[in-house]
Amino acid sequence: MTITAEERRARILEVVRELGTVRVMDLAARIGTAPVTVRRDVAALADSGLLRRSHGAVSLPRSEGATTGPAGSGHVIGMLVPTVGSYFDEVIDGARAAALAAGARLVLGIASYESADDHAQVGQLLDAGLDGLLLTPNWRPGTDSGETEWVRDLPVPAILVERLAPPDSAAAELDAVGSDHRHGVLLALRHLLSLGHESVLLAAREDSWTAHQVRAGYTEAVRLLGLKPQPVIDIHRPGLDSELVAARIIEAAADGVRAVLVHNDHEAIQLVPLLRARGLRVPDDLALISYDDVFAALAAPPLTAVAPPKRAVGTAAVELMLRRLDGRSELPTHHVQLLPELKVRTSCGGGAG
To answer: Going from the N-terminus, what domains does the chain have, and what CATH number goes with each?
Structure first.
């Protein structure tokens, strides 16, 4: 027999009163209901002040006057990222440090850029008994709004990290924290213009959200700065197209274009020796700026690079989540964009600073 949500939640409260503290998975088994349904019920009861969630378990609220730990104490925050070992390492480090300082715990999940199973990965994270979720789904500009709706229906508070939902999607009302990559591209092109370059190439990947933001930022910055537009050099196969990209840059250099912005560090570092072998030296013959600043300082020569505030993004996302979890429901939806900075080294011939 189907029971109503009210009856189901009343049963949940009965079990918690009986057992004191119980894991969400055990609670679901006890009342014979799917875990995802129980998580939603528990979230609703917690929002009403009838239950308390902590480390994947639920209990009755503390009595009035009970002592509490530091802000965020006991909270479990999940974090889904598309990769580790590069850009997102610093984002994770910032999130982990902020969680630790607040007495919270961070649980990590990975869904690769090629993966289409964000939803499934999130389900596995939720089974850890999360209080909130930091989410970097594999979206790109042009993603259909219908493909994002499941994020809006999660049973715990969610914050998008380095992503924005389509504006016509209900998920657009979620909190979001990320880098303003368009501003980062503007910084790079403005610097090259200050060095006398009136035309700048862009060689960019096309397999990530950041890549599309860099491309859009390039179009915008060329217009704002009055630069001569150039066709974007597409990097279709990251790590494998370097020879083709180098050939395109050499063709443009023959026509007088002697500055290039490359997304990302991996691609830029591979290009430098290929260009040199063809008689085009960085920075003597070509000014080069990399985007991401993960490994750029280790290149030869050290690469001037746009540095998104990766660690600060992770920190800000956790801090915003803790404000949500500590009951500050009066907060409006936050779309926070942190500004990158330009790390000037030697690869664009402008001196280091």
So the answer is: 5-59 (1.10.10.10), 76-178+310-338 (3.40.50.2300), 181-308 (3.40.50.2300)
